[in-house]
Design a protein that fits this description.
Shape of chain B: globular
Number of domains of chain A: 1
Largest sheet of chain A: 7 strands, mixed
Number of domains of chain B: 3
Strand content of chain B: 5-15%
Oligomer: heterodimer
Order of helices and strands of chain A: EHHHEHHEHEEEHEEEHH
Distance between the termini of chain B: 51 Å
Structural class of chain B: alpha+beta
Number of strands of chain B: 11
Low-confidence stretches of chain A: none
Radius of gyration of chain B: 25 Å
Strand order of the largest sheet of chain A: 2-3-7-4-5-6-8
Mean pLDDT of chain A: 93
Distance between the termini of chain A: 40 Å
Largest sheet of chain B: 9 strands, mixed
Shape of chain A: globular
């Protein structure tokens, strides 16, 4: 079904929160899912897959151990692309100074790509990411994609290298609507549901504070 | 002259003041009507198929110089027991969508299955908004029965309510599958915020007047008579009501850059006028006439809520003081607007101060209207955290913006008595009692003061030279509020500098603020978290809109007021 990008972002934010991510990371997961969807990638499917995989696990276990290490790695050898991506975005200036940032053992690497869009906007130069069989580059507005669909959609990669400044070749413009797979939408909906307080009579009467009759 | 500076966010961004803001020439419905008149938009009612029971549909199309937009209205026969203004309602007297272009019969048919059920339906990228409205039962029946009996309705009864129908939600920006704002934001007519929603409401008012006449005509016909035609003067007095709950309050907190841009535009406009060295006599005359016309609005402003009753008492006393000031000091000296504003700040209630702050903009459209161009918000550039910021700089920023919060005792129950949450019932936003209801685990991040204080304390043992990127890697729970602090560092009016979860918080302050930026009048709180208002009261009807009447319509005309009383 065709969805608006705002709907995708709103759903993704609630779902990420429902799966145990902090509000701040959930906001970024949502912007990222929206960004991928706008470029025609199965953003909601990949987010749902990650949330199922990392449901309510402590974030520290799937975070980089150190941001100053030569190679970033997570103690569990399955770094979350959301946390890795957020850290990459936080380290945009370091990325430009170092030229590259290399990460080991990252889940669903495409989910980290939107964060480099943010880094590119901040730095004012394109940023690229490369992993086995895939290369993507972005200046934050347009995207260049090289690689087969299954490489882009990889569930786990041994090495992920970000570099800046990068070259842009064969640009793709974002779209304004996205087709969403209903299964992933349902999965995200289940995660999102955890963030909603159950309806109680007291909440219904007091919580919104309408008070009195509206039939006047 | 450079000693006149923009008002400090510490002064402006307090809830009590935000909850006293008045509409101004930068309000979104006034921006819209000026554009429609300036560009000579054309209006056409292309369908009106409503039966004797009030069921059917109507289409109203407007033509801009480049495009067409159509309000498709569906009218329903609603049983009284289903009439509720709450989000959790499931049926309404009328439902609407603003369509991008001119709808085909197939579009109207498709939407007839989706718009009447609102949140239970789906729309597409050709729909720009989805909304609904309920009748004001008392006024509706009075107007229908008066016209059906062959005479005009009573103006006093009309003024007591102000509208025939009130909207209970106007959704835009991609809700329910509608077009995202990004799809239309590059069109000049939608550059200012909420122009889609404001256009939809303006056309809704036209439909409501047609519908009430139609219902009166049918009732008179069934009694073998002809109904009176509602006089345009009386019709014009009526706006569209709106009934709003908590949903709007999180909006201001969730869109900090946008909120900053609204407030900053108004503050820049106030500053520009305060810096004028002299006022010309025609500008003074216009201002004085608008003070006189404002008095009618303030006189008619009715509320049964104790808080608003007190505020109105203060405002009415302020009006008398302003008369005294204008008769005494006047506006002929140097920097007259700055002098008036400073006097207001020392002598008037917050309602009175904000009334004057908005009103001094009125004679100066040429100076201030262009600030409306800066009111749209784009979060993209500010959304990314600057991870290279040092902990020392972050600490300084927090101390500057959130000093009040850092000094607050967040262990004291009264300072965190409430929690914002979303109910599973139609995702209605609610505010609950943290210590009395099982809601804390569902709390939304809508208490920036408390969260900033937590962040400040979590940083206590970090060295100044550390980078926030390293702090966030270990403390992702502070990511939301750290981003917020960085945004407010660049956009000083982005943050409400008050406690949004105390036992004293009045969510209606946030609702009032947002609705004043829309251009609403007649704020009438129904509780501490629910407010009714009026939109487009006294506005020219679409077919009579001209550049002459597109600007000051919100101020009732002193002379026609008497004439209407005899209708």
């Amino acid at each position: 079904m065709s969805h608006s990008l705002n709907e995708i972002e709103a759903m993704a934010k609630r779902a990420a929160r429902g799966a145990g991510l902090s509000w701040g990371l959930s906001e970024e997961a949502a912007k990222g899912t929206r960004w991928l969807s706008a470029f025609g990638f199965p953003g909601t499917e990949m987010l749902a897959e990650l949330l199922v995989m990392n449901d309510r696990i402590p974030p520290i276990d799937v975070s980089p151990v150190s941001l100053s290490a030569d190679v970033w790695h997570a103690p569990t050898r399955r770094m979350s692309p959301l946390i890795a991506g957020a850290s990459l975005s936080d380290c945009a200036v370091r990325l430009l100074q170092r030229g590259t940032i290399t990460m080991q053992n990252v889940s669903l690497p495409l989910l980290a790509v939107p964060f480099m869009g943010g880094a590119a906007l901040r730095l004012g130069v394109p940023v690229a990411a490369e992993w086995d069989g895939a290369r993507v580059a972005t200046d934050g507005k347009q995207l260049c994609v090289q690689g087969a669909a299954d490489a882009l959609r990889a569930k786990h990669v041994g090495q992920l290298v970000f570099s800046a400044p990068a070259e842009m070749t064969g640009k793709r413009e974002p779209l304004m609507r996205a087709d969403v797979c209903e299964t992933s939408w349902g999965q995200l909906g289940s995660f999102a549901h955890r963030t909603f307080a159950p309806a109680t009579e007291e909440s219904r009467l007091r919580g919104a504070g309408a008070g009195g009759s509206d039939n006047d | 002259m450079n000693t006149i500076t923009r008002r400090d966010p510490e002064l402006v961004m307090r809830l009590a003041r935000l909850g006293s803001i008045h509409q101004s020439r930068l309000s979104f419905m006034r921006v819209l009507l000026r554009r429609l008149a300036r560009e000579g938009w054309r209006f056409e009612n292309t369908a009106f198929n409503v039966n004797d029971a009030g069921e059917g549909h109507a289409v109203y199309t407007v033509y801009s110089p480049d495009r067409a937009y159509s309000l498709i209205a569906y009218a329903h026969d609603l049983p009284p027991e289903k009439r509720s203004d709450r989000v959790i309602a499931e049926a309404w007297d009328a439902t609407f969508t603003l369509f991008d272009g001119v709808p085909s019969a197939a579009d109207i048919e498709r939407l007839s299955h989706n718009i009447p059920v609102q949140e239970a339906g789906r729309v597409s990228g050709t729909e720009l908004s989805v909304s609904r409205a309920n009748r004001s039962v008392r006024l509706w029946e009075h107007v229908v029965s008066s016209l059906a009996a062959g005479h005009q309705p009573d103006l006093e009864q009309i003024e007591a309510v102000g509208y025939l129908m009130r909207t209970t939600a106007v959704y835009g920006s991609g809700k329910l599958g509608a077009a995202d704002r990004e799809m239309i934001a590059d069109r000049p007519e939608f550059r200012a915020p909420f122009q889609v929603e404001m256009l939809s409401v303006y056309l809704t008012r036209w439909f409501v007047l047609d519908l009430v006449q139609h219902m009166a005509d049918r009732r008179a016909a069934s009694e073998g008579r002809a109904a009176a035609q509602l006089s345009p003067e009386i019709g014009r007095v009526m706006g569209v009501g709106n009934s709003t709950g908590l949903g709007m309050a999180p909006f201001l907190l969730n869109h900090p850059v946008l909120f900053n841009n609204w407030v900053a535009a108004r503050e820049n406009a106030i500053l520009a006028v305060r810096r004028l060295a002299k006022a010309k006599s025609e500008e003074i005359a216009l201002f004085q006439s608008l003070v006189a016309r404002s008095k009618i609005t303030i006189d008619q402003w009715h509320s049964e809520h104790p808080i608003q009753i007190e505020k109105l008492k203060g405002l009415r006393a302020d009006v008398i003081k302003v008369d005294g000031y204008l008769a005494g000091v006047g506006l002929s000296a140097e920097h007259p607007w700055d002098a008036l504003y400073r006097w207001a700040e020392d002598n008037l209630s917050l309602e009175g101060q904000e009334w004057i702050a908005s009103l001094i903009l009125e004679p100066y459209g040429a100076h201030v209207d262009s600030f409306a161009e800066e009111m749209a918000g784009d979060n993209t550039a500010t959304f990314r955290i600057a991870g290279a910021m040092s902990v020392g700089d972050l600490r300084a920023l927090l101390t500057e913006i959130y000093a009040w919060a850092i000094d607050t005792d967040w262990q004291a129950p009264e300072n965190r008595a409430r929690a914002w949450y979303v109910s599973e019932e139609k995702l209605e936003p609610r505010l609950g009692e943290r210590f009395e209801e099982p809601i804390e685990e569902y709390e939304q991040p809508l208490a920036p003061g408390r969260d900033a204080a937590r962040l400040f304390h979590a940083l206590a043992h970090w060295p100044d030279e550390a980078q926030v990127a390293d702090f966030l890697l270990r403390h992702p729970e502070h990511r939301h509020v750290l981003r917020r602090a960085q945004i407010v560092g660049r956009a000083p009016y982005a943050e409400i500098r008050d406690n949004t979860i105390s036992d004293q918080v009045l969510p209606i302050d946030m609702l009032r603020c947002k609705l004043a930026f829309f251009g609403a009048t007649q704020f009438d709180p129904r509780s501490d978290r629910w407010v009714r208002i009026c939109m487009y009261g006294n506005a020219p009807l679409p077919t009579e809109l001209t550049q002459e009447n597109a600007d000051y319509w919100v101020f009732p005309a002193v002379e026609t007021e008497l004439e209407e009383g005899t209708a």
